[in-house]
Amino acid sequence: MDIASSALADIVGEANILTGDDIGDRYRIDFLRKHEAAPGVVLRPASTEEVSAILRLAHSEGTPVTVIGGQTGMCGAAMASPGGIGLSLERMNRIEEIDPASMTMTVQAGCVLQVAHEAAEEQGVFLPLDLGARGSAMIGGVIGTNAGGNRVLRWGMMRDMVLGLEVVLADGRIVSSLGKVIKDNAGYNWKHLLIGSEGTLGVVTRAVLRLRPLPTTQQTAIVATGSFEDAIRLLRNLEASLSGRLSSFELLWGDCYGRVVDAQLKQLKRPCPLPKGYGFYIVVEAMGSDREGDDAQFERALAAELDSGLVVDAVLANSDTQRATLWGVRDEMHVGFMNLMPFCNYDVSMAQSVMPTFVSRVREDLAKRYPEAVSYFYGHAGDGNLHAIVNQDPGKPLESLAVDEIVFGVIRELGGSIAAEHGIGTLRRQFLDWTRSDDEVWMMRAIKQALDPKGILNPGKVFEL
Ligand code: MLT
Ligand code: ZN
Fold first, then answer.
1. Which pLDDT does position 397 carry in this prediction?
2. Residue 380 CA: which ligand 1 atom is closest?
3. Given the CA of residue 334, which atom of ligand 1 is nearest to it?
4. pLDDT lower than 70: segments of the chain
5. DSSP states of 8-24 as a string?
6. Domains by residue range for the chain, with CATH
7. Are 77 and 144 within 8 A, CB to CB?
């Protein structure tokens, strides 16, 4: 790296420059330990102005800059270039304002998602975006990846919650539009270009987020159905019978549920909440504000589905502890897959009607090439997003590119997306044009070229220049 350390020290101070062994794993390795980076330096700026000054320097020297957040990404997008700058915004973690009258929160990029949740709740308002990595993922990261998670079905993805954005562009220019309005059609809505751009178009430093009324009731269950078609019928029924309160519909194929609950029993001593052996399991959750009526409505809705035979078994949480136990099955699924590491994992979306075809086709194609392969399927079926884990048991690595081709080949035929919520990073880069047309990729490159002509922002992510 050509930038003199004295110039960097003038910006962030000696104490906020990490080099050599001081760059701990937390800045180099992601939580699945799939990707590893070797940044030349990690900088921890305290303000947008410091970020801007760093980028001005990096721009003049042509030094790569990668933002490092909570390291919970899955596609390698937060891996700094060898010898480049890793930018950690962990010191920029303040919640600057919660405005309950306008239902907005102004927050710095380094704030951890769960901290933002809790701060909103203290003020009696609600930030709906939720995911298993809530305790480490940072606001800048969830904006950079347009994160989804468990409640997209009702409240949308991060994109749907960002009203205002402040970013620093590659040349150090600060672009700020921290308005609190939902409607703003004044020319191009540039913030949507930045959201989900994986740090390749600008560094997100602050955001204004849209809040919602804080739900005061929550009903959670795990239910089982015999077939996938019944699970989707249940989804549509509950959307209607819960009057729009259905917030999560997280589905696990039966064999996936079995593997996860067995491992959780053994390793976490968490008892299996619903017997194994059914076709499909769904974590269903509704949220609302009618203390008298919501529990009864939820129970009525599930009872009707049990009576009709669509639901074959169900367990309802009757306390917050039980709710945590039920969600634990879904949030801590990795426990079930540890001994399959290093596995291939996928994050795809498609019309719900073709999901069973997707699973059976992937399994058929895998078996032809790798007779010993095992595959597990689960995900946010309510919004069309499935995850898959593939390997040989126990953990005999497959040729991951060949498995990618199998999975993405089926997705391509079925008209889905190879990257529903985790993004492209480096892991999916060579498959971008399996899911996007040449003209779409051309447009993406033109935008990148216009905003970052020297290619210093997170080089090699999404595509090679
Ligand atoms: C999830 O839904 O749990 C996350 O997206 C991570 C994953 O399972 O791939
Ligand atoms: Zn997910």
1. 84
2. 2
3. 8
4. 1-2
5. HHHHH-GGGEE-GGGS-
6. 5-88 (3.30.43.10), 95-213 (3.30.465.10), 217-332 (3.30.70.2190), 341-439 (3.30.70.2740)
7. yes
